[in-house]
Specification:
CATH class of the largest domain: Mainly Beta
CATH architecture of the largest domain: Sandwich
CATH topology of the largest domain: Immunoglobulin-like
Distance between the termini: 114 Å
Number of strands: 9
Order of helices and strands: HEEEEEEEEE
Helix content: 10-25%
Shape: rod-shaped
Strand content: 35-45%
CATH superfamily of the largest domain: Immunoglobulins
Number of domains: 2
Radius of gyration: 36 Å
Number of helices: 1
Strand order of the largest sheet: 5-4-8-9-1-3-6
Length: 164
């Protein structure tokens, strides 16, 4: 014999509904706006990373005074760490004294990734006539770039009796 169950049909405790089309549209718009913002930030970063940069560094500086006191010889090596060619390097200040006119130190172009040296004597800068070994002297350089930009570098150099 068969048994027959009496009672009401089983009741579903929760009804499943799909996301309404309006909410789905809002979610898609938000995702699109966020993705667009990330793309904008990425693209502008990539464009700026290829921009020209002017970066000159003093690779070395020496001030040699034969005999320990008197006239010295200044030699400076500049490296171009940027993406723009350096057209010239001038000395504008030595030992705290501004020079009346900038004195050319390096006049040959320095391509990006390259370096060049220049030497000056006491006949070119009066401050080099009375140098004492062991003393430190401030040096200010003005770097000119092919794109018209200028960079000022201030460094110090310690005089030595022999080249170091």
């Amino acid at each position: 014999m068969r048994s027959i169950a009496l009672g009401a049909p089983p009741v579903h405790s929760a009804r499943r509904k799909a996301i309404s089309p309006i909410i789905a549209t809002i979610i898609l718009i938000v995702i699109t706006v966020v993705a667009g913002a990330f793309l904008y930030v990425y693209a502008t970063g990539m464009l700026h990373s290829g921009a020209a940069s002017e970066v000159a560094n003093v690779q070395s500086a020496s001030l040699v005074v034969p005999g320990g006191t008197g006239a010295g010889t200044l030699t400076v090596t500049i490296s171009n760490g940027g993406t723009v060619t350096i057209t010239s390097v001038n000395v504008t200040n030595f030992a705290g004294q501004a020079l009346s006119t900038p004195v050319p130190l390096i006049t040959t172009p320095i391509a990006p990734g390259q370096s060049a040296s220049g030497t000056l004597t006491s006949s070119q800068i009066a401050g080099l006539k009375n140098v004492v070994a062991g003393e430190s002297y401030e040096l200010q350089l003005q770097v000119q770039y092919a794109n018209g930009q200028t960079q000022v570098i201030t460094t110090s150099v310690t005089a030595s009796e022999y080249g170091s």
